[in-house]
């Protein structure tokens, strides 16, 4: 029933006792609240982005009526997009939506339970801290963080809270990826020998917003609030709207694309980060003033620390030819696990003739279809968005109610952030980047990497 609001449990004092609550000023609703089965979950939107409008919202709408979720407010720094977002949400939900100029106004909303965060890449970690400080659960887009300072602060804040945080690594809610993880973790694939991550497009307009850039005036936004903890720069509408092209507001390819794919490596292997990363690339085609590369290759060494065992991962991405498509291919001595075709096959495996030459036996994997097993993801009625994100959004919504750990918890975001930041360090220094486990810092040329 909608009038049945919050339910506080007896253990509230235990949750409230954490030092974090005192230092971050957490409100009473963080004290162990459990949302009842009939309570409507009230959600706020942090950033009326294209990603939210075109994918996250349709996926939310696939499940919100069944799970009794509602959107009640929207925060966006730009009045133009804020007005567009309010009108769009009013049409979808049939009721008024609170318009907020910033997140302070959003979190002042009475009885706000959760937020969906899809702001600029560099803002995700800091906006997650704001959310859990306000005792809100959060669905936060990737990359989780692009500096270790932000990653560590956000990880600490989430772990000190009792909030449900789902990182937008939607492969973790995909049937084919769940089956791939099980196939590898059950030992059926054999030791991984290599992984190819590929993300190729041919889209001159990718991440560009020329029509919107022409509309944006400095007086229409809070530029200082947008920058958060990044170095002060003069107002630039391109950096606000086309941030994916401009370091340090985004790393571009690593943060936007690689973070999805490298997360599968961590998930499938239970390894937390690479041992080292090198990278090369450049701006070869789209010379439009961008700072981030339009073509790159990063090479990762993975394995247990202080051992020679392991495997190599390559991430290849280009923006001027789409041959190779988008996907992940895992290799073992017995064949390949291909998440573009969703097939396990003996392709490339050790054949009888070659094995016999060294007194070995053939090693060829059986054929296996990763998309056709008994594991089924609940997706509900599909009204829009993609199947992976729809399943991922539903998983978060269900976990908001059950308080169970979601498919992509903050640990997943922290791990992909380390790999992402190591890649950024290799890109911007030209050196081999490594990770100092004790300091939890990315190192390049013997120095801690910041920007």
Question: What would your notes on this structure say?
Answer:
It is a single chain. It contains 16 helices and 19 strands. It is an alpha/beta fold and about 450 residues long. The chain has an eleven-stranded mixed β-sheet with strand order 16-15-14-13-9-12-11-10-17-18-19, with helices on one face. Strands 5-4-3-6-7-8 form a six-stranded parallel β-sheet, with helices on both faces. A two-stranded antiparallel sheet has the order 1-2. The longest helix has 20 residues, at about 410-430. It is globular. The relative contact order is 0.15. Mean pLDDT is about 90; it is low at about 1-30 and about 375-385. This is Gfo/Idh/MocA family oxidoreductase. Pfam families: GFO_IDH_MocA.
Please outline the helices and strands.
Layout: E1 6-7, H1 12-16, H2 19-24, E2 34-35, E3 41-46, H3 50-61, H4 64-67, E4 69-75, H5 79-93, E5 98-100, H6 103-107, E6 114-117, H7 124-133, E7 137-140, H8 148-160, E8 165-167, H9 175-185, E9 192-200, H10 210-215, H11 223-227, H12 237-241, H13 253-269, E10 276-282, E11 295-302, E12 311-318, E13 326-332, E14 335-338, E15 343-345, H14 352-356, E16 368-369, H15 387-402, H16 410-429, E17 433-436, E18 441-444, E19 447-448
Helix pairs in contact: 3-15, 7-8, 8-16, 9-13, 13-16
């Amino acid at each position: 029933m909608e009038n049945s609001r919050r339910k506080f449990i007896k253990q509230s004092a235990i949750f409230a006792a954490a030092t974090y609550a005192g230092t971050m000023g957490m409100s009473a609703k963080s004290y162990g609240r459990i949302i009842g089965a009939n309570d409507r979950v009230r959600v706020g939107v942090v950033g009326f982005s294209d990603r939210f409008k075109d994918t996250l919202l349709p996926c939310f709408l696939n499940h919100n009526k069944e799970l009794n979720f509602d959107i009640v407010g929207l925060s966006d720094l730009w009045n133009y997009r804020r007005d567009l977002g309010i009108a769009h949400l009013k049409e979808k939900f049939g009721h008024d939506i609170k318009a907020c100029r910033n997140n302070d106004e959003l979190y002042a909303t009475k009885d706000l339970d959760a937020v969906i965060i899809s702001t600029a890449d560099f803002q995700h970690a800091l906006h997650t801290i704001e959310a859990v400080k306000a005792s809100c659960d959060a669905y936060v887009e990737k990359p989780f963080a692009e500096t270790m300072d932000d990653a560590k602060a956000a990880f600490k804040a989430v772990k000190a809270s009792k909030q449900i945080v789902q990182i937008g690594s939607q492969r973790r809610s995909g049937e084919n990826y769940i089956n791939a993880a099980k196939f590898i973790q059950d030992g059926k694939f054999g030791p991984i020998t290599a992984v190819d991550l590929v993300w190729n497009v041919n889209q001159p307009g990718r991440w560009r917003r020329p029509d919107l850039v022409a509309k944006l005036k400095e007086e229409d936004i809070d530029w200082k609030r947008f920058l958060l903890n990044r170095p002060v720069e003069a107002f630039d509408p391109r950096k606000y709207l086309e941030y994916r092209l401009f370091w340090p507001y985004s790393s571009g390819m690593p943060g936007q694309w690689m973070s999805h794919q490298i997360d599968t490596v961590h998930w499938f292997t239970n390894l937390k980060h690479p041992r080292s990363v090198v990278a090369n690339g450049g701006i070869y085609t789209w010379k439009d003033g961008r700072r981030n590369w339009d073509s790159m290759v990063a090479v990762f060494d993975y394995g247990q620390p202080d051992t020679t065992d392991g495997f190599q991962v390559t991430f290849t991405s280009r923006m001027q030819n789409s041959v190779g498509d988008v996907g992940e291919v895992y290799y073992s001595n017995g064949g390949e696990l291909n998440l573009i075709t969703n097939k396990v096959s003996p392709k490339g495996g050790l054949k009888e003739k070659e094995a016999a030459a060294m007194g070995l036996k053939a090693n060829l994997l059986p054929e296996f279809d990763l998309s056709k097993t008994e594991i089924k993801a609940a997706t509900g009625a599909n009204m829009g968005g993609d199947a992976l994100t729809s399943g991922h959004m539903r998983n978060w919504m269900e976990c908001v109610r059950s308080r169970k750990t979601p498919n992509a918890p903050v640990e997943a975001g922290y791990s992909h952030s380390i790999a992402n930041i190591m890649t950024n360090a290799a890109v911007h220094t030209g050196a081999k980047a490594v990770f100092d486990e004790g300091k939890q810092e990315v190192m390049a040329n013997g120095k801690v990497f910041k920007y």
